[in-house]
Amino acid sequence: MNMDAIKAGIKEALALVEDAKQLADFWAKYFGKGGEIQKLMAGIKKVPNEEKKAYGQAVNEVKVLAQELYDAKKVEIEKKAMLARYEAETLDVTLPASGNGAGNLHPLTCIKNEIIDVFAGMGFDIFEGPEIEDDDHNFTRLNVLKDHPSRDMQDTFWLTDELLLRTHTSPGQIRVMDNQAPPIKVLVPGKVFRSDSDATHSPMFSQMEGLVVDEHITLCDLQGMLDQFVKALFSGEVKTRLRPSYFPFTEPSVEVDVSCFKCGGKGCSLCKGTGWIEVLGGGIVNNKVLENCNVDPDKYSGLAFGIGIERIAMLKYGINHMGKLFENDIEFLKQFKA
Amino acid sequence: MKVLYSWLKEYVDIDIEPKELESKLFSVGFEVEGMEYLGENLEKVVVGQITSMEKYEGTHLQICHVNCGPMGEDHLILTGATNVFVGAKVPAALVGAKLPCGLDIQPRKMVDMISYGMLCSGEEMNLNKDWYPGADVNGIMILAEDAPLGMEMRDYLELDDYLFDISITANRPDCHSVIGIAKEIAAALKKPFKAPDMSYVEDGTINENISVEVLDKETCPRYLGHYIYDVKYTESPLWMKRRLIAVGHNAINAMVDVTNYVLVEIGQPMHAFDLNDLEGSSIVVRRATEGEKLTTLDEKERVLNTNNLLICDKVKAVGLAGVMGGLNSEIKETTTEVLFESAKFLRDSVRKTARGLGLQSDAASRFEKGIDEYTVECGMARALNLVQKLGIAKVSSSHFDVSGGASTEKRVINVQTAKVNDVLGIEVPEKDMVEILEALQFEVELKDGVLTLAVPRYRDDVETYQDIAEEVIREYGYDKVVPTFLDAAKVTSGGLNAYQAKELAVKEYLCNQGYYEIQTIAMTAKNEFDMFLIPEDAEERKVVELLNPITENLSIMRTIMAPSMVRVIENNIKNGHEEMRFFEMANVYLPKALPLTEAPVEKKMLCLGSCGASEDFFSMKGTLESFAGANDLTFTYKRGNVAYLHPGRTAEVYCKGQKIGHFGQLRYEIVDNMNIAGGKKADTKIFIAEIDYSVLAGLFKSGIKYVPESGFAGNSRDISLLIGKEVECGSIVDAITACDELITKVTLFDLFESEKLGADKKSMAFNIKLASAEKDVTDAMTDEVIAKVLKALETQFSAQMRA
Predict the structure, then answer these.
(1) Is B31 buried (19+), middle (13-18) or exposed (0-12) by CB count in 10 A?
(2) What is the reported pLDDT for A255?
(3) Chain A contact for B525, CB < 8 A?
(4) Which CATH number fits domain A107-336: 1.20.120.80, 3.40.50.2300, 2.120.10.30, 3.30.930.10?
(5) Which of B470, B518, B548 has the CB atom closest to A244's CB atom?
């Protein structure tokens, strides 16, 4: 037997193998039952004894070689098959994705959350009162007396002689003070209602009331605290300005303006050339309100403020019409991803 | 409040420019909402005199030579007007002039000549006859002979003036007057306030016949009357007319103009009755009887009720107190004797009468803000002063003063200066406090840190040290406040509580599921229920109604969330959007009883809405399932019935045995009625879920506790069933689960129907997981359980095991 010829034959046969099927055929032909290797092994019987050892070694060499070549071929073919699979499974990765993407919170919720974050850091709790209130909480105990013209400051939706849609979040002050002794630091966010509807008014809008009641609270504290707030909400450059105003539930009452964050106070279209933008109202809690809630005004004093969420949202995001906030067009909403 | 700069200057020496005055007023609490220059766009229009005039042959024009004195003695100006004559003084708009009507005057070719200017009509200068007599003639405005040549018309017509429109806060009714504002300016500028002349001389005449009686002193706590006679029916002088016109009144006749002048200047609504029309020469102030009638000055007959306070004579009503006089006693040419009225009527009474009758007047809006008795006195005095000054009547000695008994002394309050500084947080020196309060017309005494203050009688708003603190700081300057950051306040912990934090987390989870948060108005229209096919007798129709809605569309408080969600989807479709997922968390309002006796329940709802090619019933169910999974809750579903949802595609959602809401596809009838393109309607499928968040919020788990895994081997088995098409998956899962407590989870993994199976059959394959906390689940145990399952399914649903 010419082992070299056999070896050459094996090499030749494997060189022709291109896929898993042909490889299996090769295996069957050489290593299978009655295959070439077995035949060679069987041939040892006819070999003279003294040559048996050499013959055995030669056959073994063939077997090892065949195995080695087979293994190498197998790896090669598997690799090729994998490549082919990858090729076949190649995608246009720029095709659109499935799934719905992500939505986001309404801009009014974003602003509300931002304000809450700032004041929560100062130790404020959050209280939410009812949207349908009575005259007592919404007006009378806030020192907005029945025949007083200050009632006309807020166009009220009435449900009965006594019940109404709250016109501000200030009744939250009463509800908190009824249930909690000072020290009090609380925010009252919520929807409020007034019979008013135009470019800058909606019959429903949102406010955020703030109340601090403790010993020795002063007007300086109101400004100092609001300074921190507007810096956090708008920018570190923004300053506040207090000017006199009137609310029945605070005395003194102030309007709080911030220096225009668009022009830095030089005057622009946003601040109507004044350099200042009105953002909220507040003041020192009127002693009559404290008394109405059984808080001793000789011991405690308070500050309160009310923020219009829509106004802040419009200012901060540059929204020009309040109606947009309640239209809920998806292209509009999409812009308020944090 | 509209007020003229020049009028203010009469009572305080204002030595700053109008623009500065605006910011000064602003800093003490009076926002100037508008400032208008009366001579705006009237420039280089001067007094001229026509020195010669000739007709321009072949045209309708006159060629005039106009002498404008220092502004040039010979201007050649052509005019088409026919009322000019040689010697006439006229307003001449010279080259470069501007006119309020928008004209810019340039040399202008008229036929073959050039006109170097224009002679003006009153209309071209925006004037009426009350501002300048003759301003209304059709032609050139002819000026008085003494008009100084070359003078700017702006100056000649007293238009070099500013009209301020000042916003007045509700606590300062006294500032709805020229003198109120003047006093504030005086204090702000640290200048003296020069009160208007209120002196008059009574001539000793007494009219014995007149009587004044007030029957309702509660509503009319003060009534002053004064008899004047020899009344001249005439026009008021130009200066008075101009001031009235500038602030928005019409000039009527001298007597009425005086009352209006006093209203603006002093802030006191006055009335003048023709005494001849007062039966028995008497005034009786009383409530109207039900159904009583009065024709007011606006010539409308008013039907009254007992809430309306009337001014009457012995037999009839002659005026609606504080609102409007009666036509039957107005000032007219024949009037010779007048009874002046200056009174205080309660603001609430005036407001109710004015609103009830839908009748607004300057007097009513002034009374609604509140009148004090000091102003009542000043008003009468000033009116008598003016009458005497103008010589339009004689002032008698018949004066009537009916009072409800309120003191005419100033109130005195004591305020500790330390308390004032406690409010402000800064140390305002006592000396400054005294100066400020004196400038604001308080009488001040300071002793041992206590201010004893006699409060001006028109300052009903000042009662406490807090009020004084405000007076002090607005004059001392808010810029002197030194910001402090709650230095004295106790440290508190804050932030969202667990409920609030969870609510935010829920919203954020939904955002991550592709939902956009929306916010819609809580009010809706009653007919929304019809559009949403809600039955007549349904609970949802029991609503909280607004007594005074702005529109029918926003007249009730919503009891369901779906309509506003659907409207938002409708709008988005209309705007061309195709794929959308929205959620809203808001209250619905459910009355406990109707008519409303107590506040209704405010129930917080979570509403989801979706629409688009990739949305269907199961995508919404998927959202609910993943939401439940994310919160470690299990939701179960039952076929449901909701008026506005597809009868075959509606599910009720349960959690821990409680119904928490429903979801499904919106009925096609509702889509058909939507305001979207017809072609889109057939394909539009809208999915809505309404979850009662107030219930759901109570089902969230309150903390995480780790339970170690059992460590025992579980088992798993698939079964495939042939079963009737009508059998619902949920009931099969329930039936399987009920078979043995080893069964922990049943999952449908294959479902198909085919002709081969038969028209009324389907094939369903379930994976059943088994586990125990006490032992391994062996194959033998599993076989036993599966046998039980198959038996149960066969019994309950005639289900057969498929090979």
Answers:
(1) middle
(2) 94
(3) no
(4) 3.30.930.10
(5) B470
Instruction: Report the relative pairing of strands A301-308 and A204-214 from DSSP bridges.
Output: antiparallel
The residues spanned by each domain of chain A are 3-88, 107-336
Contact A212 B489 (CB under 8 A): yes
- Whole-angstrom distance, CA of residue B641 vs CA of residue B646: 8
Rounded to 5 degrees, what angle do the CA atoms B630, B635, B641 make? 135
Q: What is the mean pLDDT of residues B649-659?
A: 96
The overall longest dimension of chain A from CA atoms, in Å, is 134
- Chain B's closest residue to A250, CA to CA, is B466
Is the pLDDT at B558 greater than 90? The verdict is: yes
pLDDT score of A36 = 86
Structure tokens at A93: 């990765």
User: CB-CB: which of B423, B487, B512 is closest to A219?
Assistant: B423
Q: B773 CB near a chain A CB, below 8 Å? A: no
Output the pTM of the full model.
0.87
- So what's the pLDDT on residue B681? 77
Task: Report how far residue A163's alpha carbon sits from residue B121's, in angstroms, rounded to the nearest whole number.
Answer: 59
User: In the numeric block, which tokens belong to residue B373?
Assistant: 């008795």
Q: Residue B103 and residue B93: Cα distance in Å, rounded?
A: 10
B577 chain-A contacts, CB cut-off 8 A: 329-331
**What's the mean pLDDT in A211-216?**
96
Q: Which domains does chain B have, with CATH numbers?
A: 2-38+162-189 (3.30.56.10), 43-156 (2.40.50.140), 211-403 (3.50.40.10), 411-480 (3.30.56.10), 498-696 (3.30.930.10), 715-801 (3.30.70.380)
User: Tell me: the pLDDT tens digits for B45-85?
Assistant: 999 999 999 999 889 999 999 999 999 999 999 999 989 99
pLDDT tens column, B730-764? 999 999 999 999 999 999 999 999 988 888 999 99
Which residue in B420, B481, B524, B548 has the most chain A C-beta atoms within 10 A of its own C-beta, making it the best mutation to test that interface? B481
Q: In whole angstroms, what is the distance from residue B612 CA to residue B624 CA?
A: 18
pLDDT above 80: residue A1:
no
Do B414 and B453 form a contact (C-beta atoms < 8 A)? yes
Tokens 């689940």 label which residue? B777
Least trusted range by pLDDT, from A24-33, B513-522, B556-565 = A24-33
Q: In chain B, what is the greatest distance between 2 CA atoms, to the nearest angstrom?
A: 132
How many C-beta neighbours within 10 Å does residue A42 have?
11
Q: Is the ipTM of this complex over 0.90?
A: no
Chain A contact for B493, CB < 8 A?
yes
SS (H, E, C) chain A: CCHHHHHHHHHHHHHHCCCHHHHHHHHHHHHCCCCHHHHHHHHHHHCCHHHHHHHHHHHHHHHHHHHHHHHHHHHHHHHHHHHHHHHHCCCCCCCCCCCCCCCCCCHHHHHHHHHHHHHHCCCCEECCCCCEEEHHHHCHHHCCCCCCHHHHHCCCCECCCCEEECCCCCHHHHHHHHHCCCCEEEEEEEEEECCCCECCECCEEEEEEEEEEECCCCHHHHHHHHHHHHHHHCCCCCCEEEEEEEECCEEEEEEEEEECCCCCCCCCCCCCCCCEEEEEEEEEECHHHHHHCCCCCCCCEEEEEEEEHHHHHHHHHCCCCCCHHHHCCHHHHHHHCC
Q: How high is the pLDDT of residue A96? A: 83
DSSP class of residue B300 equals: -
For A166, residues 6+ apart whose C-beta sits below 8 A from its C-beta are A129, A130, A131, A132, A133, A137, A138, A190, A192, A193
What confidence tens digit (pLDDT) does each residue in B674-696 have?
Answer: 888 777 777 789 999 999 999 99
- Check if B172 contacts A (Cβ < 8 Å): yes
Position A178 pLDDT exceeds 70: yes
